[in-house]
Amino acid sequence: MAMIIDGKAISAQVRTEIAADTKAFSDRTGIVPGLAVVIVGNDPASQVYVRNKRRACGEVGFYSEGYELPEETTQDELEALVDKLNANPKIHGILVQLPLPKHLDAEKLLLRIDPKKDVDAFHPYNVGRIMIGNYAFLPCTPAGIMELLRRSGMTVEGKECVVVGRSNIVGKPMAMLLLQANGTVTVCHSRTKDLASVTRRADILVAAIGKADFFTADMVKPGAVVIDVGMNRRADGKLTGDVDFASVEPVTSAITPVPGGVGPMTITMLMKNTLRAAQDSVN
Ligand code: NDP
Q1: Could you give phi then psi for residue 212, rounded to 5 degrees?
Q2: Against a cut of 0.90, is the pTM above it?
């Protein structure tokens, strides 16, 4: 029987710890960690994420500000808001919800965010720090996965790790973190030849491609640990991962479900980064 890695329970535990650390920090310094969440346009999925992020702030004792800007917001207007938040001492973390509407240049905007307040760790300065293993913030989803592995008693050292997906926010930083934890890492993508022959080598398989139920039992090594990052909507509106859970689960030694696996950890890691930004602001 596979262990079902309970992201909800682990996330609740980490949030309790963050709330305690926040209280201790605020009692000592009088500073309340502050997060600003900016959203442009009316994408319903993004609106849900933003609401959840602000709710999580309240739960751990943070101050938060929300900016809901209309679809037709210009690059200049958005950059002016980022400048204002960069200069605001009550704000320690700035999160601009992606994707932005097409007329806006996300890459240019991310460069504008003060790296010390870049709690998503998307600024090239922070990406570079991750590359050399000397970082303040880790990108939330891969960091959450590392925390899930650690707290479930899984070691990475010496393991064959296969990451499928090479995006800047999930696949690439995930590979880097597994490498830093002394895994032997292979990264696959849409041009990988004979994907199944590579994924079948994995002791730890991270599926992050955004294709519903794509990974089937024949692609997984018996006893592997499978981390499903995918968040896909089925035709009936139900949320499903990249892994065909019903067929894959019996083959694995441990697996994350969707929902209730990786998802809850992502916001928790955002809280962790915001607390770290506030702590670093006094050092
Ligand atoms: P992207 O669309 O940016 O990247 C997808 C990656 O998957 C690309 O590198 C692509 O390859 C690769 N890919 C696509 N199809 C295949 C295939 N058939 N075989 C092999 N590789 C393939 O996605 P993200 O990284 O942003 O997100 C991935 C998934 O994770 C999505 O479902 C997303 O919703 C989810 N997600 C979940 C989060 C959470 O908190 N749980 C947070 C962030 C994302 P190529 O580069 O060659 O195009």
Answers
A1: -55, 130
A2: yes
